[in-house]
Amino acid sequence: MPDKTARIAMVTLDCAEVKPSADFWSALLGWEVAASTDDYAMLTGPDGSPALGLGRTDDHQPPSWPDSGRKQFHLDLAVDDIDAMADRAVELGATLADPQPGETWKVLIDPAGHPFCLTDAANWG
Q1: Tell me, what's the pLDDT at 70?
Q2: Where exactly are the structural domains of the chain?
Q3: 88: alpha, beta or left, given left = phi > 0 and alpha = psi -120 to 50?
Q4: CATH of span 11-59
């Protein structure tokens, strides 16, 4: 009998330019760029993890921060050292979001304008 559940195979983010987004996320996550064209890139991580896709859209509009209703979702990344990873993300082209909503995580904006959070890996088990 076939399994009647689904699994997330990939999360895809829209962007205006694929290469800068693929370079940023590849460096930040330490994932390989498995495929890349001017219109699309796919990054692969550890076995069993969903892939990250980056797709060019001509009318890409970055989500707003703080959320004004255009943002649909964001990535939460578990890290060992939030401040060190925030510094690394900024070196790679991210910006620190303003305002910051809390003390136990940091919100950054990737080069394509997507907000993402860095949070303490110890709290994720």
Answers
A1: 64
A2: 11-59, 61-125
A3: alpha
A4: 3.10.180.10
